[in-house]
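Bench log, entry 3. Co-assembly request; chain sequences pasted below exactly as received.
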Amino acid sequence: MPELLSSHTNPLVKQIRALQQRKGRDETGLFLVEGIHHVGEAIEASWSIETLVYAPDQLTSEFARSLVDSQSLRGVRCVAFTPELFRSITEKDNPQGILAVIRQRHLGLDDILPKQLYFGAALVSPQDPGNVGTILRSLDGAGADGLFLLDGGVDPYHPSSIRASMGTIFWKNLVQTSFEEFVKWARENGYQLVGSSAHAKIDYRAFKHGEQPLILVLGNEQKGLSQDQMWACDINLSIAMKGRVSSLNLAVAAGILMYSIFDK
Amino acid sequence: MPELLSSHTNPLVKQIRALQQRKGRDETGLFLVEGIHHVGEAIEASWSIETLVYAPDQLTSEFARSLVDSQSLRGVRCVAFTPELFRSITEKDNPQGILAVIRQRHLGLDDILPKQLYFGAALVSPQDPGNVGTILRSLDGAGADGLFLLDGGVDPYHPSSIRASMGTIFWKNLVQTSFEEFVKWARENGYQLVGSSAHAKIDYRAFKHGEQPLILVLGNEQKGLSQDQMWACDINLSIAMKGRVSSLNLAVAAGILMYSIFDK
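Structure output for the full assembly:
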């Protein structure tokens, strides 16, 4: 049985608290991943684990214990916490007793080859980290490959984004860049850009995808795509709104469009 | 200019705080609605407003001021708060300065006629109030009429559900009952029940809707539909999962199925 860390003022505890905030993540390039499934996916996808924190008493799953053992053998720092200390750093109601500090990955447009990324989605300045994670999950389900986050917006390494992604964030190409650079790159690499807007004239079900690699482009929760952004797309599609609301939740709209366009 | 309430120990402030918790809502049959759009929708849909709270300094919109004036003329208790007191009760980062205490509506199965409810959705014990509200919003967008919440689960009058519904909760039939009673009622009233499950053999795109009124039935976030619940449905449909995750977010799955089945 390893010695259990119990001090709330330990530097590692301070680091974890700092990483719960965007400032801490931006300054260090690290982020937090919690829970057996998510930590397991990060390890399987070969992300760089800086520190593995666990609460031995809470960690009852055989699989979770094997994760800690194998990472420890590989030289990753593994630190055991008392149940009290673990509860003080967790954001979950029923913590599973495992949390990892992981290094972020930052891909550039040059890292993406159209052959590797046939279907993708781009979000312009999304405001809700849960939406970003949920869209990664749907993108995975629909068989697409990458997500572009354009012109800022929320941090995809926010705990709510990681959680909502159900671990798919560790397997998908994720690129953060400007709308302008993205469009230039897409043109040069032969992508068809399909915008989504309540103001578009073409119903999404009328769209027939041809041979080109394709990226679906969605505006943010409040404003949607601007007129200029719609012009930058090859075609813009709308989803019929038959009731009182003028739009769907961003992640729902993305799910409907991705399944309709990608899942042939 | 009305006199501004500033006391944090005022009974109304205590009532509002109590209504932020489920216990307070269950005990009183009241709930909170915040923001100009949402309060406006509740009033337009003729829900019973018990109290309207507003912060005169923050309430800059002409429409919002007219809501307060007209409710006041109709005899609704309207209470002006200081900006500080209003901020202390709001759950929003950028409060709009208006909040209503409203009476819940509880419909029973007998209140619903198939002629009034041609397309609907049923959720078995959903756990995330945001999902309930988001599904109401999608249901409205897809042109459906009602939502059935079966065998408990979250409170649809939770602030996150209200917020995510974008006000559609005030316009849709919402029935809370047991799975068993629901199925009995659906049989007697000629509904086709369409279940959704990762274990179903039929792809949702293969489904053709006939003439019957139809209700889509979805299991909860963790467990999906049980085998018995699938048997109780006339047909069960699956959404293809092409990547690593075995399911979609509940609200995304509901959105894809509702738009595919209802939106003809």
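The CA atoms of residues 59 and 65 of chain B lie 7 Å apart. Chain B touches chain A at residues 41, 130, 134, 137-143, 164, 166-168, 171, 239-245, 247-249, 251-253, 255-256, 259, 263 (CB under 8 Å).
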